């Protein structure tokens, strides 16, 4: 991939930002359903296997294409890539541990909702970074000069 690191940060922010907002807002809105959803998810080990594999793959792709740690948005995208990878690995390789942690989090509803709100705000920030117009930078005068004319001092 020959795109600049800033372009990759914007691209991943365009996807991760709205995803975080939608998922976390929906999770908070459906907080009363989360325990039931987790129980149904846990009931069939195929779900943890397949879901973990896809989450792990997505996390590894983010990590592979975005190892850029300069600027708030870039750091957030890189950290999210590593967090997604860790989540996929836990779900894929250690599903009982993942479900146990998820049950503990859902049991502490106030903290869980607060974490969802924080991630939704992070998602709003990434959405802004990804979709806001990039300001035009002024070109240097040397770039506009004809190559066959000498430069004036």
Description:
With 153 residues, the chain is mainly alpha-helical. The protein has one domain (5-131). The chain contains 7 helices and no strands. The chain has helices at 5-29, 34-43, 45-65, 72-93, 95-107, 109-131, 141-144. Helix 1 (5-29) packs antiparallel against helix 6, helix 3 (45-65) packs antiparallel against helix 4 and helix 4 (72-93) crosses helix 5 (95-107). It starts with a helix and ends in a 9-residue tail after the last helix. The mean pLDDT is 88.
Which SSEs are present, and which pair or pack?
Elements: H1 5-29, H2 34-43, H3 45-65, H4 72-93, H5 95-107, H6 109-131, H7 141-144
What composes the largest sheet?
none
Overall pLDDT metric:
88
**How much helix, percentage-wise, in residues?**
over 70%
Count up the helices: 7
The global form is elongated
Helices and strands, in order, run as HHHHHHH
Oligomeric state of the chains in view: single chain
| Residue fraction in strands | under 5%
